[in-house]
Each structure stands twice: as C-alpha cells, then as structure tokens.
Amino acid sequence: MLSWVNQFNICCFLDNQRYNLPHHSFECMAAAGAVQTLATVAGTAFEELKQLCETSNDWLFGHLSYDLKNETEGLVSNNTDLIGFPDLCFFIPEVILQLSERELLIGTFGNRHETIFHEICSVEPVREPNQPLGAPINSRISQADYIAIVQQLQQHILRGDCYEINFCQEFFAEHVAIDPLQVYNTLSQTSPNPFAAYYKTGQQYLLCASPERYLKKEGDRIYSQPIKGTSQRNLNDAGEDVKSKEHLFNSPKDRSENVMIVDLVRNDLSKICEEASVQVDELFGIYSFPQVHQMISTVSGQLRSDIHFIDAVKATFPMGSMTGAPKKRVMELIEQYEQTRRGIFSGAVGYITPEGDFDFNVVIRSIMYNAADQYLSFQAGSAITFYSDPEKEYEECLLKAAAIKKVLSGRG
Question: Considering 200, 217, 228, 245, which one is annotated as catalytic?
Fold first, then answer.
C-alpha cells in the first residue's frame, strides 16, 4: 500500500504498527494526492486552516510545524532550517485508504475504487534493505558544548526562569542520496512505534517512528498523552529488562519530569475544556518499545461547546513534553540555545475528519530529508531540570538517536 501511495507528489501514511495503546482507532491509514492544498507560514496559519475546514467539510491530512509557536506566542525563529517544510501544510486527499486486519476501505473522488485496488495490488512493495548512508553523520553541538549549555540552562532554572526545558540537538549528513521508502521501511522494522508516519510534500520527506500522541479529539472528548521518562531495554536478559522498567517507574527524577508536563498539559486543556472536566486518566504508565521503556501519562477533558476544534489545537500547541514549563519562556530559551530551527521536528502530523475529530502525533524519533538539496537531519533531546546530570542527558540523546543511526548505517 505504501509503495502505491509514494507515487504521488504529496502523501501521508499513518501506521500504529499493531500497538494496542489506549484510544487507538485504526491500524493503518493513508492519504494520497491533493484535491486542494494549504501550505502557509506562521502568522494567520491556524485561521487559514479553520477556514479550510469550514469550507471543505472533508478529510484533511498534514502537519503542524513547531515554529507555529511564533503565531501562538509572538516569538521568532532565526536558526537555520535546511529541510524546508512549510510551517503548516494540510491537503484534501484524492484517495484515502483505511486498512484493518480484515478489510481495506478506499475513499476516492470518482468511481475508481476497483481500479485503485488493482493498482495497489500490482505495485511491488519495497523489500530491499536501505543502503549505508555513505556519508558521515555530524553533530551540530559537540559533547563539551552540550554539557556547557545544559549547565547554563540549569542556571536559568536556579534563577526561576523556568522549571524544566526540553533541549534538543541536531545530527545531520550532507550531499546524500537515499531512497526514503527503503529507509522508512527499515526504520519501521528496527523501531516500530504506535504513531509512525511516512509523510511527503514534494521534495521534503518525514520518516517518523514516534511513540507519542500530541492530541486527539473524539466527539467532545480531548486526549493528550505526554511522554517523559526513558530507560534502555535489555533484550538479552529478561531479568535486567524488568529491573530497567521498574527503575524507570520508581525514578524520582523521571516522575518529577513527567508530573511537571502532566500539570502543563492539564493547564493547556483547562483553557479549552469544561470546568472540572480535565482529569488524569493514567499517571506514570510504563510502556515498552523495541529500544526503550517510556513513561506515558494520559490526560483528557471535555471540549467546551463554544471552542472550535482548531482553536483547541492552537491553544495547546506545541506539545508540552517538547518544550518544558512555563511554555513561552522555555521556547525563548530553546531559540537562544539550540543551533537548528526545529521545523517539523517536535511538531505534529495527523488528520482531521469531516466531523471535526482529529488525531496528531508528536514528531520525534524521525528522519527529515530534503531530496532537492540532499540534506538529511534528525534531532534528539531530553528534559533538563536543576537536578539533571549533563553527561547523562547527553547519553539519553544518544540512546534516542541510536535506532536512527543504526538504520542509516545499513544495519537496521
């Protein structure tokens, strides 16, 4: 199915990789081709998206860039962006595919269902593993500089500027030619995750193995599932793997980070939800993925009847787990200390239904690729608190980047 979708200039493929996490509503969904496209920059982007939803009354697929913060909080983005995704892009697809264990549902303009089914069946899936990158993977920040920056951020925390900040660094390769579909397939096999996405807009590609949901609306109910807290798997020793999981659950540092973000999300949802309806459905849930255990909490609330669903997204964006608290101040510090514009990284990819429901992931554990400029990038970060050990935070970044490095080395 993905091989057929990839033939279009714009497409979005969403796959839960057979994970049965709370509130999942589909196994696999894809959108291909565009009847209409909105690609715009921060400023009036959310209002333009709202107008598109109201006038089209159709399915929309696309992304929200982290740099929409400039619209929601009056901030700026002056760091370098060599990938080039728009700040916001959504499209009404020519074809929608919904796959379950038992059936494939095809939605399309015109009576082409049978033709499309035969076309999908006739396209050979990509079976070959991706080739080694053939170019060095560079780090935008050295280990020494990273540690020095974390120490500076801890001084900001000591002065009361913020409580916690998500600090990220970029890894990149230049003058590289890859087959994005092959790389995505290898990434999915190496690191299957419940919010995986293959997303293409012209020459820009996102190959995403995200474990995290940003926001979902189902009827009048809003759900957010922030992740904070990571420990390494030990697949060669079941006993040690259990110990790692238990250590994460009982870790005061990880619990502190997680509850800070849960409080931030509760505060965000309280702006758009009925009074006293916001609740923590699960706190400190531990979920296991191929490389890591993650601490995931679930927060939900009842959306107010006078709030447009796009305004619900605007009021809570970007995801608190990728900023820190308080949100506006830490985003100022992120701009000051990070070396690369985040762009689509730590933004969101997903869909909006004709009824106004939606589901968006958090773009992490992802490869971004600009095919025109042959520039490849991925970012990794961790939550910095006053009690953080800078060297361990650096090691956590490397742990999160390990699956991607393995894929790009051809060993995925």
Answer: 228
